[in-house]
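just leaving the lab so this will be short. below you get a single protein, a line of residues and a line of whole numbers that encode the local backbone shape. id like you to explain what the token line says about the fold, in plain words if possible. thanks a lot i owe you, the record is right below:

…
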Amino acid sequence: MAIPMRFATPIKCYTSPTIFNSTNDHHHALDASYIQRAAELSDKSACFTAPHPNFGCVIATTTTSGKVFGEGYLYAEGAKPAEVQAVEAAGEYCRGATAYVNMEPGDCHGDYTAVSALIKAGISRVVIGMRHPLQHLRGKAIHTLKNEGLQVDVLGEDIRSGSIEDALKACRVVNAPLLYRSASQVPFSVLKYAMTLDGKIAASSGHASWISSKKSRSRVFELRGRSDAVIVGGNTVRKDNPRLTPRHGGGHLPTRIVMSQTLDLPEVANLWDVREVPTIVATQRGARRSFQKLLASKGVEVVEFDILNPKDVVNYLFDRGYLSILWECGGTLSASAISSGVIHKVHAFVAPKIIGGKNAPSPVGELGMVEMTQALELNDVSYEQIERDMLISGYLQPIPDMRPVIPSVDETSAIDPSLSPYDSPIIFFYKTWDSYGSFSNFSHHPIRLPDENGHYVTWSSVEHYYQAHKFVGSSNPDARSYVEAIHSAKSPEEAAIMGRKLQREHPDMVRGDWESVKTEVMYKALKCKFSIYPHLNSMLLSTAGCVLVEASPHDLFWGGGRDGEGLNYLGRLLMKLRSEFLGDDDTYYAEVSAGYRES
């Protein structure tokens, strides 16, 4: 994916041809057009920033002949903020200019990088498309900017003219996954299917290639590329043997997920090839243990549920930090997902073909409805012709509009469980956007440490350092190129993907003592991080008396696991480091570690 474009010279802005009746109407329409542009920019990072929001920033003037001086968007989790990119692009033109952001800046790490960039650059006014939906970030940037003397206007609050509705909608749509996650505690789930004009997704024989046109299938690849995961049922694996890859040339590859109660699945399938893209099989506890071992030997992750159903699966994916899920399943599973209330949006590709067949499958199975008045209606429906096909899209559940109500403290825990008005003996952390997200290895806090030759090297994050050191000191001289590649990774997420993939595919390149030294490597990086950033040190020390748990549901070494079965080594190392900073002895660390295991 390309790095955000920077403008060396001013360019003309995007203006509306509307005739204005007043100066205010004109300025508000211009504000709206710039906010829409910020939303368009932010959309370029769809799924690359997950689980963070998509951020875009435009720096411009609001005179009659408005001009854009700088633009930027958040490339990936842990990368340079959109506001910083835009400020760097605009340079001296920032003084007295207006910054437009589709969403309130949400610095998760306590250093307020994005907000500070706007203040230091001399921006005089900031227009915000929508407040941040996460309660521990909502309103903080606005308050800081106002305290520094900047004028801050929020669409729908300070700017209310009729010309802003399209801009407001654009802001909500581009971050719809985050809004659903914040409001409903589930990932944004989209059901996609292709059917004939008479409502069939396959012939009576099961043959389904191809219902839709080549361009429609390309659109499906784009949908996959904008999703964190793609879900299918066992029947789809048996009949279609899909790959479920985007095949669009982009850098994001969603996780493939198969839901199968009985694991009646083929031993050979495209989805079992996990060299490029991971696959998770969700099944019922105890199903075909021998087949589970076979999948594990191929590198496929198997997750067991007491009772396999869409609701529990999406709850699990929520815990893993996924924002967007694409369902490409058959009628039985899609009906179950709709009945469970987890489907938010539908994309239906309708081809001008008739195939008939009494037993030919339809896209949605039995929902138990007996009257047309019970039919579910889509909201905000759109229609698009793609060659000879028609794409019909709409929402089963409207995008949450969080403008009218800012929850009180008592309501906070109902919207974001990580927050509570009461003190808790256990502090959970996982993704960098959480209240204690700075404890994550993926937080954007560069560290500087000496290499094996004593030369100091700057690493973009703890994750960069950790992943690269799997290959530092390897007996294979070619491993050095791996270290350099990980060091240059554009984000912690990319560093992690690269390091794990190289370790899996080239175990001969990994240093021979890695398993015995990896916790030591991690501790050295953590100690550097929490030593050089005062606000992080203060945050860690403020947790004294609390058990720290990395709430990863799938990493049973560094994280706590789904049900506390994980070893939680990241939390343990942070507690050990905290004790060292506090001057405590090992007794305190042993006590809190034991406390977590017992809980």
